[in-house]
Amino acid sequence: MAVREERDLALAVAVARRHYEQHQAKTDIAEALGISRFKVARLLDLAHEAGVVRIEIVEPDARDGRLSEDLRARFSLEHVLVAPISSTAPDVRAELGRAAAGLLGRVLRPDDVLGLPWSRAVHDMVYALEALPPVEIVQLSGALVGISEDSSSVDLVRRAGRMSGGGRRMFFAPLVMPDAAAAEAVRRDPAVSGTLAAADQVTVAVVGVGAWAPGQSTIYDAVDEDCRQRVSEAGVVGEAVGACFDARGELVRTCLSERLIALSPDQLRGIDRVVAVAHGEGKVEALRAAMTGDLINGLVTTYDTAQALLGRA
């Protein structure tokens, strides 16, 4: 392979990672790399031709509608959307984000109050939104420092708020504090306490669900090993906006509870419609528990995750 071809292929890999893994627009990639957007398009074509990028197309059919109805009946869910895509597909996050954005547009009414915490799944949904009714939006959690500079919970509420044109309640604070005393000091800030109190008025929330395991929960990955172990020993299998629960979906109070800057588990349970966006084999037990315990009553997921939740091969 010629030197120029090798250089172009290396650049194609970098462009493909930005576009497909980091969900950057072609114009943003062009600006960041100092090349034209036409060059970006050609490099993406090269990535496909060289086998660097492989796209899986799963044809939608009645199977996905049946899975949605079966999940709805099995777990008494109010809203279900099973996307016709595998959890292992390279663009699964973007696809689920678009699916969740579409569902939210159908679920929201003008008199609703929308709650948004930080999670990767919520980020993907917000960045896929094209329109929202004029609803008020309330931030439900602080930000996880170091996860993504352009994806804080404040950024998500601002972006969704610009689209809706309704009111916004926000605060600047981390999600996880070093200890209970530091968290209590942050909660005394009027912006924090006022916004978290406004979570009582939220009628629709979109959340991620994390399994209490490495790589399956951003909170798990953010805390120290001692805390992880103590939460595990308390019987926790998963969390949603930091609300920990066991295999039956019962809320569990842990050493982590006093360290979080987020709405309380009781506030989460009090929201009328809580839609989770999550997928993958590692999250099946946590999702099943969250649905069984009525912590969530809506779900956007992939077809293979839906099959696993229903106990099907």
Automatic annotation (TrEMBL):
Gene3D superfamilies: 3.40.50.1360, Winged helix-like DNA-binding domain superfamily/Winged helix DNA-binding domain. Residues 66-310 form the Sugar-binding domain. The keyword Protein transport does not apply. SUPFAM superfamilies: NagB/RpiA/CoA transferase-like (SSF100950). Transmembrane segments: none annotated. Pfam families: Sugar-bind. It comes from the Bacteria. One of its GO terms (molecular function) is DNA binding. Keywords: DNA-binding, Transcription, Transcription regulation. Belongs to the SorC transcriptional regulatory family. This is Sugar-binding domain-containing protein. It comes from Serinicoccus chungangensis.
